Amino acid sequence: MNSTDFTADLDGKKCVKCEKDAKFTGVDPKKAWYCQECFIQMVKNKFRSALSKKKIYKDADARETLVVYDGSPSGAFLLNQIDDALKQITYKRLMVQPTVLVLVSVTEETEIQRVVERVEELKKELLENVRWFIAHVACSMYTDSVDLEGLRCNGTEKIPEYTDLLSSCSVPTYRKELERILREKCLQNISKSLKISKCMVPDDADDLGRLALDQLCLGRGGSLSPLVTVTDKRSDFLLIRPICDLSKREISIYNYLCAIDKQYIQFHTHSNTQDRSVQALTDAFIRTLEDEKFYSTINTVLSTASKIHNTNGKDGSRCVLCHVEVADCSLCSTCSAIRDSCSGLLSRFL
Amino acid sequence: MEKRRGPPPCQSKKGCSNPAKIRKAKDGSQLCGPCFSKNFEDDVHETIVNNNLFKVRKNSIQFVVSFSHCSFLQRGERVAIGASGGKDSTVLAYVMKTLNDIHDYGLDLQLLSIDEGIKGYRDDSLLAVEKNRIEYELPLTILSYNDLYGWTMDDIVAKIGKKNNCTFCGVFRRQALDRGAFKIGATKLVTGHNADDMAETVLMNVLRGDIARLERCTNIVTGEEGDLPRAKPLKYCFERDIVMYARTNQLEYFYTECIYAPNAYRGYARKYVRDLEKVHPRAILDLIRSGEKVSVKKEVEMPTLKTCERCGYMTSQKMCKACLLIEGLNTGNTDLGVRKSKKSKKVIVEIEGEKKEEGCGSGGGGCGCAGAADETENEETRKRLKDLQF
Amino acid sequence: MSSTIPVTIDFSGGAEFLVKAKVQKVQIPEESTLRDVLKFVRDNLVTDVHRINMLLNDDASEVAHGVITLINDTDTGLLSEYDTVIEAGDTITFVSTLHGG
Known about the structure:
The complex is a heterotrimer of chains A (350), B (390) and C (101).
Chain A: E1 24-25, E2 33-34, H1 36-53, E3 64-69, H2 73-86, E4 97-104, H3 109-125, E5 131-136, E6 153-154, H4 159-167, H5 172-194, E7 198-200, H6 205-217, H7 224-228, E8 231-233, E9 238-240, H8 248-257, H9 278-291, H10 297-307, E10 308-310, H11 333-340, H12 345-349
Helix pairs in contact in A: 1-8, 2-8, 6-9, 6-10
Chain B: E1 22-23, E2 30-31, H1 33-50, E3 78-82, H2 87-102, E4 108-115, H3 122-136, E5 140-144, H4 145-149, H5 153-160, H6 165-183, E6 188-190, H7 195-208, H8 211-217, E7 221-222, E8 230-231, H9 239-248, H10 264-279, H11 282-293, E9 294-296, E10 306-307, E11 314-315, H12 321-331, H13 342-353, H14 375-387
Parallel strand pairs in B: 3-4, 3-6, 4-5, 6-8
Antiparallel strand pairs in B: 1-2, 7-8, 10-11
Chain C: E1 4-12, E2 23-29, H1 34-45, E3 67-71, E4 74-75, E5 91-96
Parallel strand pairs in C: 1-5
Antiparallel strand pairs in C: 1-2, 3-4, 3-5
């Protein structure tokens, strides 16, 4: 990765904050450009303000937080910010007591083993005095508490059940949505097992912007706000998305400048480009708009999502699958459709 | 060579034995021509009944009717059908007439068409509407932008170029339909917006951050608080089905793209919606459903509705958008009402301060605002506006 | 040389502006599928190449968005879609739905 990759068309421009030579543009190259130090500070500020706006850690109790690490650049960034916070490297100390959860989604045994080994290395470099657990998304298949062990990948025995359930879904759009729902269920299971009520996830602005449009197309328009904003209160735990205001681009540049990119874990994801799903179309749509220089798309979508809610308010019980939609019967209509596309396996699971 | 596989039989509930010819886009059901046509009409009737659009007789066949006194339309009421000559409004007019007859809604239906003054485009579509008038035996009224605002779209584009003309046309048309409906004494308006349009609108409002519109755009009835409420009976009909319905009933419609091309952004959104429909047809209805569920959070600031200082139309600013745009055209400040610029803001402040006697500069006879320099002209314009019942 | 069969191709809903005539009687190779017909249309009938994306996708393997394809007034989705074999005397109709109304 070359630092000159990010510095096109900036000849002569000065940093908008400090008058030094500008080296990096913000999300909209027409609006802001920064020198290296100010860029780093800008990114850090976005992280801190996302957390402080919602006063999540004001309370002296309940500081225990599960911090999810999925090996991605955004995940590494999150971990690093938490590490900074504990070491008081940035200003005011962020009062959080983290437990790291490395979330694994690959199914090959050798790959899983490689992840376990890589985590052992990482543990020596950051968050050394913190508990680390490794768990597979298949933990979502547990109905009771899980006994988590420190040194191995938990939940691997449930992988066949997990993959069977996903394969039983005949509609690609629903299969991907089910995957997302099961990931949340996994976090819920683990939080409950560890008796931790807060969970930080590394969802960035690009992920969430796409998620907002996907959910719109799935009929969950009224529930966008909790799904794509900083805090998402479920019945027994709080999902926190501290990097919801940061784009993948900002994170990549930051990681490069602060040498965090050495902490990635290589997961071989099988992205199916022939995919005929809503999610694939949404991704293509947003990329097209950004290619056509409509840079504020993600920003506007997320801003809109934060201002709207379900007309029926929050009354009524939540869908037992997605936990966001209000449902008269146990499932919201979208989740009913997901269940119907799963040839029976999902009904048994519920 | 073996005979190719033939189509499956019609899936209509009444046990029709014809081969299926049409695959309904909305739900994939396979129907023969007549059954598809009947199915389409039943769908629209069901939408009408379920949303209390018209007061229907208790003994209407097939549906359990909620006999409500608050239904949108009453027997004997005059309803204007927004007719552009295109597929949606042609089908709308035909279906409304058909259902009005079959189910005895008792409505007085009339066609209302707007002439934007685009040579070569609108002339042809107006011919199509004229054909509708003759075939469906419905009265037709045509209103032009020139009559209402003193500007045709050709004039406007000559003045401002092709960049923001759709803003002008959209705003002008909306008011034109209202004014036209009043002119013919209609108290309600129906338009041919279909499911694809609605899905696209929901998406566009999210992409533009227009939360006020997002909240309202999926309402099947809009403008109830104003003078001319409007309804969209084809709200849940897929565009493909509308086209097949027109084909099955041999309805002629007009189809050339407006020569002042639509903006690129909406083109991307339209492609996205079309792709969604192909890959996951349910997404269209789910997008609409998302829009229906949405309302703005209490703590978010929203503009309140007032009336325009110049012409009395509904607006959230001091002047309605149409008057603002006309002001811009007449004074040469073509950013007014279109772009947020320092220059525009200055002009708006100036306008709000100016006295009503100062003219808008359109040179008489045809301006929609009541600020003409000459008193007699002023009086004439006011009278005209009064005729349009504003 | 393989023999040809006569078919009628009908362009509607706006698609007719891309070709010389709305209804055309043509000869296509025997045992052509609908997929073959798309390429035939692209190669022989389309006169307005700039707007070809209104009717066909980039490599003419599928029709463009919003185009309904009928064979003898039957939706090809009820037959074998692009694999449907064309028979002599068939009428293939392309109906574009892309225009406002």
